[in-house]
Fold these 2 entries.
Entry 1:
Amino acid sequence: MIAELGHFALVLALACSAIGTVLPLWGAVREDRALMATARPAALAQFVLLALAFAALTAVYVQSDFSVLNVYENSHTDQPLIYRFSGVWGNHEGSILLWVLILALFGACVALFGRHMPEALRAATIAVQSSIAFAFLLFIALTSNPFLRVFPAPAEGRSLNPILQDPGLAIHPPLLYLGYVGYSIVFSFAAGALILGRIDAAWARVVRPWNLIAWTTLTAGIAMGSYWAYYELGWGGFWFWDPVENASLMPWLTGTALLHSAIVMERREALKVWTILLAVLTFSLSLLGTFLVRSGVLTSVHAFASDPARGVFILLILCLFIGGAFALFAWRGPALAGGALFSPVSREGSLVLNNLFLSAACVAVLTGTLYPLALEAVTGDKISVGPPFFNATFLPLCAPLVLAMPFGQQLAWKRGDLLPVAQRLFVAILVGAGMFVAVLAITRTSEAVAAFGLGVGMFVTVGALDDLRVRASRGAAGTWMRRFVGLPKSVHATAIAHAGVGLMTIGIAATAFHEEKIATMAPGDKAIIGGYELVFEGLRKQPGPNFASTVGRFVVSKDGVALAVLEPGKRTYVGRTMQTSETGRLTRGLGQIYLAIGDAHGASVDVRAYWKPWVLLIWLGPLAMTIAGLISLMDRRLRVAAPSRRKLPAMPEAAE
Amino acid sequence: MMRRQARFLAAAMMIAVLSGPAFGLSPAERLPNPAQEQRAREIGAELRCLVCQNQSIDDSDAELAKDLRRLVRERISAGDSDRQVKDFLVARYGEFVLLRPVFSMKNLLLWTLPFLALIAGIFGVRRLFGRQVAAPVAQAALSAEEQAELDRIVAAQDSITKNS
């Protein structure tokens, strides 16, 4: 019954999305207010109906109703409640439903909070958003219905993939989707503005908070996925250049470029063509990622060909929306020239530079991801494109970008001067260069790349934060604190986000100094790593709710003082013949001791032990970026509905 | 079968999943000579476990990965150079085994496209600065009401953000 209700709501949502596509668009083009007014109820109805469908699916999962095929395939009565919830999106059908739910959520948010924006733009945006929802709802209804029944109903389900039975993974996909799908609304704004033919600084203003929400959640989602891979997969890597990861990184790169080019558009009404193009591209890359992941094309071109229904459908959606957007773009683009003038050496110029390198870096990721597929499809040759390729192309393209960040942050608008900026960055340059030289000297130049990375990371972190000091210390003495607090939130946010990039750079560069020890240890054996002593005390069996595990006990001590007991383990899940590893980690400062166990030989066990200095910076950096995104969202002038609420008072100027 | 399905599911969730947790290289496999073992690790990181999705042989538990690790160590012990070890494996398993694609005619576009994009971008930016004198083209006009709104916004923004 519940499943049928969900199914019914799904089909109704499909109908609403069709209405939400046609009527508001017709109204926006005809300037008919009555028709435009249908956008709001249509958007809200889609969201409510999809929320209902999602709730219905969740309900059958929680009840373990195995007469629903999807529940049978992905759940089990032994599963803890949290994984019965997360099981809803831990499979193809459920995750596409979540995808569309978030799509509808953004449409509904525009309907609710977009009161201050031009009525026609709002209607057109909701129409485009509804059309995307329509396409994906049709996809669900025709190829991926989560509410199908199975008869006779099995007594027990097949359980959720054990790898996904982790608290991190209960939150990770929704967070990632918020960002990933969040760019749909930015796309819809761009397409809506192109349809109406009016694209100006006001557009950039309207779009900025939406862009920030998507960027912030995407950043957090990617970072969380990376940390999960680090602690779950058992050998301590944090990024693998897997096509699935690349699928989320590409929209992040263009989304970051968009965030920056939109500033120029907002302030100077320049770079309009490029900004709109980025808005279109970012969501196109999200769609491309969805296609890559959903179609099975990644495993092999042949896997895709053997079960093409889903893949071809998404490919059609992809071509339709990307093609449509580019057609609109070709139609309206030529009329978009213009904007204020600025010199190449200026804040605007530095933002252009940012876009240049971010785009080239994105091309590197895109090429590396798609080239093997294209080559196999065209010539039949199979090649692998792995981490060594990306390290050789992506990193050199990022290095100049990161290095230029502190300069860009301090350059003046319109026409800047590099020399005074360099003078102001004196401290940062000194710290960065000092770090570089010191590491070179200590390692006797054997780790030149890491030394460079550490130097750049220090320079960027110090330079980014130093910008706040410089801005706050202009003017009378004694007012420093007041000025510091009074700086616009976006200035704080920029500094924190850029410092986050610096911290992440340091963390990544420091991986060159990770220590590794692989050994077979018997009870009582000792190992020394990173100055810490590990004593293996033995193995024991430990049952879990729906798994059996073998746990090793290790005592970590330094200078004879016991610090902690680490218990890395291996789990074998009931119902699936699959093992997962549970790593043991001890945080010391910004570094971690990391332990994983392998095969047992009697009482002995294979052990991988790592000392990873500064490793936490790899995720603390993105955490800082996420916080910066939130701070920037709170900036009054960027708040979604701010301008209509009250007249902005003339605020005291913070500095200058 | 389970593993493959698991991998698909994981991939389906757009998360950083390769093919599940793995211990990879085990202690017993290592070469006694540390310098040779170090070379074996460096080579191993550049070789693909052919039955896995995007995993190097050092990180995989698959039997094939174990065989490849053994082969690499055998060749190194026999005195092969790094180049020879890789050539040996390519001759056996094809170019697919290399995680770093070779720089060849076939892969020319792969290696050059990112940098061509950068060069194209640089030309684009040069045009942007060269063309800046061009007059803006008229758009759909603003209504009086919208113009007033825009003026207010611009004025308010300028007063707040002169500093940013």
Entry 2:
Amino acid sequence: MDLAVQTFALTKRFKDFVAVDRIDLEIKSEVFGMLGPNGAGKTTLVRMLTTVLQPTEGTATVAGADIRREPGKVRERIGVVAQAMTLDVELTAWENLDIYGKYYGVPRTLRHERIKELLRWVGLAERARDPVGGFSGGMKRRLEIVRSLVHQPQILFLDEPTTGLDPQARAAVWDHLVAIHKDQGITLVITTHYMDEAEGLCDRLAIVDHGKIVALGTPSELKRKVSGGDIVEAELSTIPEAALNALEKADFVLEVKKRDNSLTILVKNGAEAVPRIVQLVDANRGKIKAITLRELTLDDVFLHFTGRSLGE
Amino acid sequence: MKAALAVWERDVRKFARQPAVMMAAIIGPFLSLILLGYAFGGAITYAPVAVVRESNGPFSSQFIDIMRIQLSCEYGGVNCKNSYQLTDVSDLDSARAMLRKGLVKAIVYIPLGFDQALTNHANTKVTINVYLDNTDPISAAAITGEITQAGQQLSAQIQINSPTTNSIVNVILADFYRNVFYIEFMAPGSLVQSIMFASIIGGGISILEDKERGIIEGYLVSPLKQYEIIIGVLFAGVTKAMFSAGTLFVLSLMIGAIRPNAGIVGYVLMFLTLFLTSLGIISMMTAYAVRATSRNAYTFTAFPINITLYFTSGAVYPTNGFPTWMQQIAAVNPEAYAVDALRLLMYKGAGLTPVLGDFAFLTGFTVIMIGLATVAFKRAL
């Protein structure tokens, strides 16, 4: 099986700023997610893969074509769904898809067949002749996704595909995305900073920070990489320095992050740790208002690898 | 009240931070004022007039001398200049051809026997014929006034020199074309302005919108070639501009604001003029819009550009009436050439030859602007 995407020391510099730093990455036929805070370099990476930006160094093959030498071929073989809505609201659903298909030179008969099929598939067949302006956010999103499929790409790049949608519409979009991969064998490359999106949708994830891939694997692999397993969150009225020091030194604690008056503590075994944390804090004249134990989430993984939470 | 002050402050601060908006608020009205003011206030100067002299003698020479010293003055007596510039032409037919091509605004015809009649008879009436290019009613009116006065002066001088004579020199005016109303004079400029409006709104703004919405970036990830995008965008703009100019043309025909004196060739050439103008102006505004930093910056600067091009085009007042600096703008203003070509084609029934100069300029302008639009687009793509 050929790789969908393979990068070779792919680098992009803007003057002194290194946006993407010698990334080597392989993406198979899968749903691949790229996670990272704003400015981490994931957008620049995708813009190079979709031939919008020229790499400073290194190169990549996308759908079997080199992004430097054969950008035209790459463009014919990929679909891109931008984060912002780029449908023409004055035009009908059909017209939006039809004109897009013409950009790609899809022959008329095939194009019309394909559009009918795609509209039916996302439940918009009855609205084909309606101007897109009257559609709901979820409908527009689904239409935009199938628009990028009119020319039958091998790889689909999506940027934050469910931003701004209500939970129901998001679920519907996810279902369609999963089906696109499963039924049509199209590789999906999704950039996102929604954890649930990454966890629920992606086969593999790359966490991108400061232009590098800091972690790569399936969601469960990534969680396992953060050794230990449980998270204790404690809210205190005040946090004395001594208490913090004591916790950081304790052998059952792996990592402590402090924010305002709350502590996020990564521990080996949650059930054992809770009473010992309470004890340690008490001994150092701290006062715990609330303490909770939960399982590790991708948010914690992200925090572990980047030192930042995704929302920041 | 403090809150109201804060609201006031926010608005005023925002206004001060947006130079484009401020410029538009000041420059727009200022441009209208000076361009309109100078356009309408100016006396017609140095309008080319052909003199066909079939009679040689002291009286006709005297008449021409009087014509030469006739001055028209601006604002009650300052800045006095000849309103016309005389050119000798050997025969009436050549002069008529020049008038048809728009090379002269009038022909002064001194017929054979003019001097002889005045010399031989003490009491006689002689005539000087003036043929006027009345498709430019403003220049025609200025020329008429001064030549009529010259005739009266000649009569008076003849009678002073020899008090026994009672000869009269009549200046007979003849409109070369059918009567052309001012609204018809203005109509070609309005057609060109509708092209400009369509280019600002339908061309530039839609490109800026596409740029802001990421549609242009969307083109980049598709197999569309750069030249395909540029051609598509420019000709969509031309279609919009031609649609507005075409609609205005038909409306003007319906209300009699345009009553063309043209055959099929004339109409084809009018279409070509409008097409070239549309392509040139659309390309210019596209180049500008693609480089503009924001929609506001574009809109508010397009407004004064529009005013300047329109009022210096000779659309509302003949360019002979302009001060020199405005004539210099007119000389490089594509709208001026478009208006000139349209007037020749609409009211003088001109064929290709008289408008070749206008076409050459418009073609050159269009080629340069397509080049600029291409460069601007390539940078944006």
